[in-house]
Amino acid sequence: MISAQAWSDAQRLWDFQKMGHEVRPCSVAIGLGSHDLGVADATADLYHRGMVPLIVFTGGNSPTTRERMPRGEAEHYRSRAVELGVPAEAILVEPRACNTGENIRFARALLEDQRVVVRSALLVSKPYEERRAYATARKIWPEVEWLSASADATFATYAQTIGDTRLVIDMMVGAQQRLIMYPEQGFTVPQHVPADVRQAYERLVADGFTSRLVAQ
Fold first, then answer.
1. Does the pTM exceed 0.85?
2. Which of 89, 113, 206, 211 could bond to 170 as cystine, CB 3.0-4.6 Å?
């Protein structure tokens, strides 16, 4: 059971991570690999809405995706986008990245190799990782204007879709931890974390939502 306090705290993290950027046409969409095929769905939707002429899916495998996506996250994303009507020639695949920093670096190298000029990019991630992904991209590729995007879903709907609310909260807590600690390690640009968000995060850690934390 998820307590009312934990649910409220998780909602606060969800609201903070969602950046609320208004999408507009950009040079490219970069879909960040994960266990969630909804990222591919959201990226395909942006293509069909005419927001981008080109998609890069980036991601290899992680312990949470190796069995479900044996061909690699980016390859499974590409297949999903093609099923949704995106032309195969509008998709580039970067199959090696193992973390968000590598997602950005390797996608950049691929686009430069293809001589694609990138001035702006839609960065498509899971909803609760919008802000962390944005902070990472700003650090690694500051010349680009970044807009965050994700599936249009509420926390409750998303947790129901994934089918494991506790896992989703664990992942949100992990994303929040990285957002707090990674600027000091040089991985992301700083993001102001309001006191109420930090307190919600600390309560969730104290309540045991810790399976996605990294050692500090």
1. yes
2. 211
